[in-house]
Amino acid sequence: MGAEDARPAVLLNPLEGEPTDADSHIGGPLLWPIDDPWPVCSVDGEPFVGAVQLYQRDFPELPFPSGTDVVQVLLCALDHDAGGPDVRLVWRDSSSVVELIEEEPDPSEVEERYVPTINVFEPIRYAEHPDKVSGGTKIGGWTPWYDSGPFVFSCPECGSVQHQTLSLATHEPSGDDVEWEFGDEGNLNVFLCEKDVRHPIKVHID
Ligand SMILES: [Zn+2]
Ligand SMILES: [Zn+2]
Asked: How many whole angstroms separate alpha carbon 104 and alpha carbon 107?
């Protein structure tokens, strides 16, 4: 296995904590401006729930579009046709947020298995080889194919390759699981267009 097969990866290594909207986290409050409508699922009408927030100062490895410094991952925490929650990514300029939303809306119904505990991160940076793929929650690296694949996905908007960017895990290497479960104790992988991360994302649960 040559060095060209190594991909930079960041194991997020979640630990239960009490983050604020100014922190990177899983399951904590999002930095959400009062004048930005909260996303609502077009299929079932439920509001999305904040799942992950990652600041550029903590995770410069993420492909932040210029003028943004925080990415927010929201889930519609019900099952959808693809067999998991719907996923929405919001890339935001934190310095543009002046007044915060008073309260994040509560869905009337959620699948409990898509609702995580509240966690901060103790990230571990490493180079990941395709024959030693971590199944933990991580940025970058290789896709942990458990039941399918490997697949190559292309952007439905421009045809460019979509890169493995974020993986949310049922089980963490530390043993401190955040208590969500994707598929059959698998991972929810988010692939982003290499040309423009705001093009439609690909979510693959494996
Ligand atoms: Zn939905
Ligand atoms: Zn694209």
From this structure: 10
Question: Ligand 1 centroid to 109 CA: how many Å?
Answer: 10
- Residue where the block lists tokens 């990230």: 123
- The structure tokens 């904040």 sit at 50
Asked if 86 and 76 touch (Cβ cutoff 8 Å), the reply is yes
Q: Which parts of 66-196 fold into alpha helices (H)?
A: none
Nearest Cα neighbor of 179 from 122, 137, 127 is 137
Asked if the model's pLDDT at residue 99 lies above 80, the reply is yes
Cα distance between residue 13 and residue 124, in whole Å: 7
pLDDT score for 20: 98
Q: Which residues contact 42 (CB under 8 A, 6 or more apart)?
A: none
164 Cα–ligand 2 center, Å: 14
At 82 the pLDDT is: 85
b vs e for 14-52, b when ≥16 Cβ sit within 10 Å of the residue's Cβ?
A: beebebebebbbbbbbbbbeeeeeebebeeeebbbbbbb
Mean pLDDT of 69-87: 96
Helix (H, G, I), strand (E, B) or coil at 180: coil
CA of 122 to the centre of ligand 2 (A): 32
